[in-house]
């Protein structure tokens, strides 16, 4: 399984010329034979768009939210002072064409059913390896019911910045819903590895996001693979 054989480039192999989650960053990863990690949101028109943040400003310098976009609006938003637009998931699939494995993070608010169905519909005819992960356990369970052929990963962390409610942090940090959601692997914040929760789960462990060779070496005994950024492993 390529999930534990190839390191994955975080939001593509991006640099000063190729912004994160852009088509050139993905092609750069393909040319260097790395897997690709990317993020998708559900837009207002029901399509999936490749973008990390909920808000548009950091990457486009325009105000607004990704969930308010439609496919026809994407050409209006340029990524980080370039001519590259925000891509749809379909555009990424058409570009990669199965040349390297994809690790797709589903960004979920309250639209678990809609984003799960959109993902399955979008990837249904794609001829290549696709793995999916999310911080939201219930979208993983929904994907298991809709299309169990996709390997699913629970994203987790110690959540030092209190990004989510205490109850969600408590459950997700401890990986309590892996069996309920039929999870195949775990992606854990590299800063929190090793930990007893991952040791107990007995699943392949992904470390994210590794940014130095020193971090990579430290994680070699407690993870099966990793997502990297800002250096070449």
What does it look like?
- By secondary structure, the chain is α/β, with parallel strands linked by helices.
- The protein has a single domain (2-228), classed as TIM Barrel (Alpha-Beta Barrel), CATH 3.20.20.
- It has helices at 23-31, 57-60, 89-96, 112-123, 137-146, 166-173, 196-201, 213-218; strands at 8-10, 35-42, 48-50, 102-106, 130-134, 151-156, 185-189, 205-210, 225-228.
- The radius of gyration is 17 Å and the shape is globular.
Strand content: 15-25%
What is the number of strand segments? 9
Decide which structural class fits the backbone. alpha/beta
**Percent helix range:** 25-40%
Q: Provide the gyration radius in Å.
A: 17 Å
CATH architecture field: Alpha-Beta Barrel
CATH class: Alpha Beta
**What name does CATH use for the topology?**
TIM Barrel
Characterize the largest beta sheet: strand count, sense, and whether it forms a barrel.
8 strands, parallel, barrel
Total of DSSP H or I helical runs spanning 4+ residues: 8
Mean pLDDT: 96
Q: How many domains in all? A: 1
| Strand arrangement across the biggest beta sheet | 1-2-4-5-6-7-8-9
Given as residue ranges, the uncertain stretches (5+ residues, pLDDT < 50) are: none
Helix-strand topology string: EHEEHHEHEHEHEHEHE
CATH homologous superfamily classification: Phosphatidylinositol (PI) phosphodiesterase
Distance linking N and C termini: 19 Å
Q: State the shape.
A: globular
Topology overview:
Elements: E1 8-10, H1 23-31, E2 35-42, E3 48-50, H2 57-60, H3 89-96, E4 102-106, H4 112-123, E5 130-134, H5 137-146, E6 151-156, H6 166-173, E7 185-189, H7 196-201, E8 205-210, H8 213-218, E9 225-228
Parallel strand pairs: 1-2, 1-9, 2-4, 4-5, 5-6, 6-7, 7-8, 8-9
Antiparallel strand pairs: 2-3
